């Protein structure tokens, strides 16, 4: 059961049109257009500060673009909030892992599995009684080696296991398009092998878009890619095209005319996922902390006028579009 | 019309006192992410201490100085102990300072009793003057408070915008980790800001004690005002504290004068509006 | 994270290997200790049952004063558990709940003043709490964390201000006494015993409902929101809606507590809604154990006891309460419930270590 009906053949899985995002004078993403075909394995590369995570935030809904649009299988999702995009089949992992550290692995997966089901608003039945969900969670965990850890609090997991759980949570939604933000970041060489195995074992119909620095992980998983620099798209094509491209060489190896900065600005580093001067788009970086710590202060990730629309809460609306049968 | 002008001046005076309290609160939050709920109690305690010193020495300035210094010291002590022990856990800091309110209130009750007290300004400040233009007679103590508040606001503005330490504080509000990475002793900045906030609150307590009185529950009242101010103006924003204080001070005064039955609740209207339209406050930034 | 806390359950310790470690008794002392610890496992339930039994007897048979004390405990336990549902599970700690308790109580009182029948008055009280919850919730759930605490504090204070200043409606500082309690057929709440049983029954129903909610997928979703709201959104959850629902539920049940409050105390005044009361509710929850749903009921018992009994012997009991909150926050953030559970885990770990001693045979 994948989320939503099958798309007409030929439509790109994900299309970005002239996406642009400005933060008070800094342009994080400048006129980026992408087309990723269904089933493709697509990479996004670029030096730190290139705007890769910001681009992802635009694609998945944590941020609204200043101009431009995003379409998922032909459907314009630019105005849709994150949870709506998830219901339409767009999954996402985060560079700084966002798992539920004070919950057990089983609870983590259960939450993910209920995410697109009307049962998430079930009030009177214990969640443990949903046997099918528990079985599915166990299966999911087992398929990627976490079966032994189901009862463990997520905070107990090793970094590699956390990264795996991060991907599993996104997979639980059975997305049609999966955005992976540096899935291998901070992993030891052994763990990288595991992650790569996980990634290559993903179903072929799933469209993958991955930000990654590690060339080996990329090469094993990705067929084509786009290179970003200072918010702009430099080149897009197959991995071979990119490796042979002049501009890319300059960028990474610093040719005579290169403008690569001596000190990388705090861009895609773990401390900051946005441009230096403006507030980072992801609220509450350190929010995976002790249970008593407060969740982000403000309800939305970025509150420019487009975000602060009419109050979100209200009488429950009908089941989200593309919901489960 | 005259009545209206007088009420407006009252509102501005109240805004001044509220500003003194809320500016400290908002800066502490902005730099340290600490929600010091005991800030109102510090204001009240300052008022009580000021009252005692003034009654004993018959010198208003001594009282003002004593209250400010005592509360500044209290703030320093608090920051170095409780706040430090809580290691940046925001909810814990909030809850612990909540507990502190009970302690301060109760001890104040034990020392000063439950009857409301008033601080009287000496000499000419105790009288009234005729204001130019409108010709209304207005109490001098309020004029004094208004003047002092403006001077301090300007002083704080200068401190924040024109001095190095001010730049550090503003940078700390924006990006604490970066400030630390620049080699600045963040711990000392914290202590400084917290102490300054408490000092301002104690100072405000004495000023407030003249026109509002020093009474049990005065801390909740001023705390509510300060909180409304930071919601409207934006948590962490100094300019927001100015704007918010003006709005709250005026609305509260007009409300009490013209709609006494619901005066307290009228405060709520700008707060709701802000929450619906711009939840992070008029001048607030989306925080990290 | 689990250093020392979790017993290494399931892993049978090698019988010949580990020494029991420093500080543990040897030989016969060890066997006695082990037996005692094991038996203590069985005590927990019976002890709690006995305590509850005593409370029940005091409630039903006791004189007016004792039973009112227990009734107050039950009323505040409902409010505290509701607050925990909102704060401990959804992560939205409200400092304005006393305001909603007051709304429930004032609703009943004001309705009766205006000649509503007692049951209709109950309807008014509950209705007012519900309507306010629905309306204010739209604004309140726009923010999280500290901002939420602040906005709920403001709400609670505004409600208190209304009770205080809108004298025409609320009789101001004097408060409104309640004379007639509702009755239905043979069940007349004006009869003390019926009232006591009713309050107890309502407490039981609300408590069970809250516990059920907590274990439901909705309850799990609240914990998810508290833990990592952005992730919840990425998983398809409409987090604002979930928070809103949790808010409405919590406010409504607090209103229920308010209705019971005025039945028990036969008077409502603004003092019940003052800021110190908001703080008291939070202290009950934190002391009992934020996020444990039952803990806050325990917290309510302790705090009501403090307030009514301790205040007689100790004039500075408010200082004690403030210091208690600070101490809990500093040393045992899980509250009393957390302490009990930590003790239980340590006992289990100790048992396992003692059982691992060389030469020890596992007895029945």
Could you walk me through the main structural features you see in this protein, from its secondary elements to its overall organization?
The complex is a heterotrimer of chains A (about 325), B (about 290) and C (about 375). In chain A, about 25% of the residues lie in helices and about 20% in strands. With about 325 residues, chain A is α/β, with parallel strands linked by helices. By secondary structure, chain B is mainly α. Chain B has a domain at about 1-120 and about 135-215. Chain B has twelve helices and two strands. The longest helix of chain B has about 30 residues, at about 1-30. The radius of gyration of chain B is 19 Å and the shape is globular. The mean pLDDT of chain B is about 90. Among the domains of chain C are: about 30-60; about 65-275, no CATH class. At the A-C interface, helix 2 and helix 3 of A face helix 4, helix 5, helix 7, helix 8 and helix 9 of C.
Task: Summarize this entry quickly.
The complex is a heterotrimer of chains A (325), B (288) and C (364). Helices cover 26% and strands 18% of the residues of chain A.
Task: Annotate the secondary structure layout.
The complex is a heterotrimer of chains A (325), B (288) and C (364).
Chain A: E1 14-23, E2 26-36, E3 41-45, H1 52-60, E4 67-72, E5 75-76, H2 82-87, E6 90-92, H3 105-114, H4 131-143, H5 159-171, E7 177-181, H6 189-200, E8 207-211, H7 215-221, E9 224-229, E10 232-238, H8 239-244, H9 246-253
Parallel strand pairs in A: 3-8, 3-9, 6-7, 7-8
Antiparallel strand pairs in A: 1-2, 1-4, 4-5, 9-10
Helix pairs in contact in A: 3-4, 3-5
Chain B: H1 2-32, H2 39-57, H3 60-85, H4 90-112, E1 128-130, E2 137-139, H5 140-162, H6 164-174, H7 176-181, H8 186-211, H9 218-233, H10 238-258, H11 263-266, H12 268-277
Antiparallel strand pairs in B: 1-2
Helix pairs in contact in B: 1-5, 1-6, 1-8, 1-9, 1-10, 2-3, 2-4, 2-8, 2-9, 3-8, 5-6, 9-10, 9-12
Chain C: H1 27-61, H2 64-89, H3 97-113, H4 118-140, H5 145-165, H6 167-170, E1 176-177, E2 183-184, E3 187-188, H7 192-215, H8 217-234, H9 239-265, E4 267-268, H10 275-288, H11 295-313, H12 317-331, H13 335-355
Antiparallel strand pairs in C: 1-4, 2-3
Helix pairs in contact in C: 1-2, 1-13, 2-7, 2-9, 2-10, 2-11, 3-4, 3-5, 3-9, 4-9, 7-8, 8-9, 10-11, 10-13
